[in-house]
Specification:
Layout: E1 11-15, E2 19-23, E3 25-31, E4 35-40, E5 43-58, E6 63-76, H1 88-92
Antiparallel strand pairs: 1-2, 2-6, 3-4, 4-5, 5-6
């Protein structure tokens, strides 16, 4: 029997391309000053820009606050075969 996965709310608010609040975040996979990769309820989210910082991170609430010069955001699909216990290296080298 196939289990249905219930998606929680996911929202992105970007203010003047300088700050952003993202909800529905499951994990922060990588980050540096030019790129942040988030695993969200709606798929992988890549935020690109310059001088990007994570101001607040609450994985319990699924929220991330970002600051910096946001140039682009892009989603990639959720991999349906992903398992809860997989680590970052397993996800990257699929």
């Amino acid at each position: 029997m196939e289990e249905k996965q219930v998606l929680k709310a996911h929202k992105i608010v970007i203010n003047n391309r300088k700050t952003s609040v993202v909800t529905g975040v499951l994990d922060v996979l990588s980050f540096d000053l030019n790129e942040i990769l988030l695993e969200t309820e709606q798929g992988m989210l890549m935020v690109k820009g310059t001088d990007i910082h994570v101001n607040r991170l609450s994985l319990e609430k699924g929220e991330v606050d970002l600051a910096g010069n946001i140039d682009s955001i892009a989603y990639s699909e959720i991999h349906p075969k992903a398992k809860q216990g997989e680590n970052l290296l397993t996800k990257l080298f699929r």
